[in-house]
Design a protein that fits this description.
Blueprint lengths: L2 E5 L2 E4 L4 E8 L7 E7 L6 E6 L5 E3 L7 E6 L4 E6 L8 E8 L13 E2 L3 E6 L1
Length: 123
């Protein structure tokens, strides 16, 4: 059974940092694209960052220069380093994986999802 388990969320003051982790089990995702999405209360889920099999990354404009996605294939884990956090970054953050090696910003193109981890940024 494939599982994606996020960790690292929490409460942080504006300007602070958090590092989210997503540990995968049940199959190797070393040849897969991985992504992070978020959903704020009352809003639709939105793309945050993605990384391809070849470690090519893409970000939504509002997090460029602040967030960094990375992967450790040996540990079957993907990370999201979030710096200079803002209150508008508050959301539940979800990890996602797709069978394709190419990244995409489209949530419907991902095959597996984690349960989410809450990130709250206070002003």
């Amino acid at each position: 059974q494939v599982q994606l388990v996020e960790s690292g969320g929490g409460l942080v003051q504006a300007g602070g940092s958090l590092r989210l982790s997503c540990a995968a089990s049940g199959r190797s995702f070393s040849s897969s694209a991985m992504g992070w999405f978020r959903q704020a209360a009352g809003k639709e889920r939105e793309f945050v960052a993605a990384i391809s099999r070849w470690s090519i990354a893409d970000y939504r404009d509002s997090v460029k220069g602040r967030f960094t996605i990375s992967r450790d294939n040996a540990k079957n884990t993907v990370f999201l380093q979030m710096n200079s956090l803002k209150p508008e970054d508050t959301a539940v953050y979800y990890c996602a994986a797709r069978l394709s090696p190419s990244m995409t910003t489209l949530a419907r193109s991902y095959d597996y999802w984690g349960q989410g981890t809450q990130v709250t940024v206070s002003s």
